[in-house]
Amino acid sequence: MTQPKRALITGVTGQDGSYLTELLLEKGYEVHGIIRRTSTFNTDRIDHIYIDPHNPQARLFLHYGDLTDGTTLRRILEEVKPVEIYNLGAQSHVRVSFDSPEYTVDTVAMGALRLLEAIREYRQRTGIEVRFYQAGSSEMFGKVMEVPQKETTPFYPRSPYSCAKVYAHWQTINHRESYEMFACNGILFNHESPRRGETFVTRKITRAVARIVAGKQKDLYLGNLDSKRDWGYAKDYVKAMWLMLQQDRPDDYVIATNETHEIREFLNIAFGYVNLNWQDYVKFDERYLRPAEVDLLIGDPAKAKTQLGWEPSVTFEELVKLMVDADLSALGIVPSNGKAVEDRAFIRLEALSTVD
Ligand code: NDP
Ligand code: GDR
């Protein structure tokens, strides 16, 4: 019997980590994830696929570690011996990165370097090839230099988070070119889902819609509504990560829908879907503004389409509605289409009454 392929994921408890884990398990992989020790449980996005590691059927294993802790990363690499590593771990909130710039850079930029160096040494010593995926971001494009943005568009990062992602991007290329490592950068535009963190604007909106319908919330405080984003569905985007590591040669790819929408359009569809007018509920709070904003993102995924055969499967309107349906279902409200949406990640909905 052949051994299953082994993958290691940082950020396994996040939105993308949970979908990627599901995808890799479906494909027959043994999946190892790095989790942080926290004083309360942080594994709710993967609890539904986790089984006791003593069970011979178990194919998902979790290890305590942190991207700021190089020694542990090295030890986990030695123990797990993965053939693919997906570096999804990050302090991923752009506005928070202005509040905690050093920590963000340590996790995002230095974290990537620590992993790349650990892989380099491991590979040199054992001769075992490890394929590496770096979770790059459209935030690296920042200030508009070209529309739509593609792999060759110059970066102009506008936050500590995106500066750190640019470093990680170039360090990944450096390891590829200096040591012939199979290392790929995904440049992923915003992707959302019912598992999206509650403080990102899309989920903040859809969660508020559900809570307003349920009579649990009156207002929704937001910041800048003028920015435009290219929003896709997270489940589609993790497929692209996997595809990148299955190619003959490592490369960098933009993953996007090639459509852009204002936050007001998102609000219109989300509130309109439950027959509400967003202008009656949305209020402005300046604390959600960023010192520098990214005004317009729209990505050109032509290279991914041609070389990876990747395409998005969910439209903008479908995405907004599926997120509203999921948040309604989580509060026990049957959506207008009559179908409760089964996705986990709603456990915290009731617990947290106000989320920024
Ligand atoms: P999330 O914020 O949902 O998840 C981030 C993950 O990183 C969590 O598992 C978190 O753990 C973990 N993490 C945070 N800090 C550390 C650390 N110091 N050491 C180890 N792990 C850590 O992000 P997404 O799933 O949305 O995004 C995945 C990756 O893709 C991130 O790198 C993000 O920057 C990038 N990205 C995301 C895009 C998007 O639109 N979603 C677009 C482009 C790039 P915990 O659960 O304990 O907090
Ligand atoms: P972004 O996503 O910064 O694009 O980063 P976010 O949803 O946080 O912001 C999108 C836009 O909405 C505006 N906005 C608000 N944002 C938040 N979070 N909260 C608010 O109340 C609010 N009001 C208005 C923002 O100013 C911004 O213009 C996401 C993250 O997942 C990154 O990790 C990832 O790299 C990029 O997407 C691609």
Automatic annotation (TrEMBL):
Cofactor: NADP(+)
Enzyme class: lyase
InterPro entries, alphabetized: GDP_Man_deHydtase, NAD(P)-bd_dom, NAD(P)-bd_dom_sf
GO molecular function, one term: GDP-mannose 4,6-dehydratase activity
Gene3D superfamilies, sorted: NAD(P)-binding Rossmann-like Domain (3.40.50.720), UDP-galactose 4-epimerase, domain 1 (3.90.25.10)
EC number of this enzyme: 4.2.1.47
Catalytic activity: GDP-alpha-D-mannose = GDP-4-dehydro-alpha-D-rhamnose + H2O
BP-aspect Gene Ontology terms: 'de novo' GDP-L-fucose biosynthetic process
Keyword annotations from UniProtKB, A to Z: Lyase, NADP
Statement: the UniProt record of this protein carries the keyword Protein biosynthesis: no
Domain NAD(P)-binding, residue spans: 8-323
Xref: PANTHER family: GDP-MANNOSE 4,6 DEHYDRATASE, GDP-MANNOSE 4,6-DEHYDRATASE
Family: Belongs to the NAD(P)-dependent epimerase/dehydratase family. GDP-mannose 4,6-dehydratase subfamily.
Record's function text: Catalyzes the conversion of GDP-D-mannose to GDP-4-dehydro-6-deoxy-D-mannose.
Protein name per the record: GDP-mannose 4,6-dehydratase
Organism name: Zarconia navalis LEGE 11467
Organism placement in taxonomy: Bacteria, Bacillati, Cyanobacteriota, Cyanophyceae, Oscillatoriophycideae
Gene that this sequence comes from: gmd
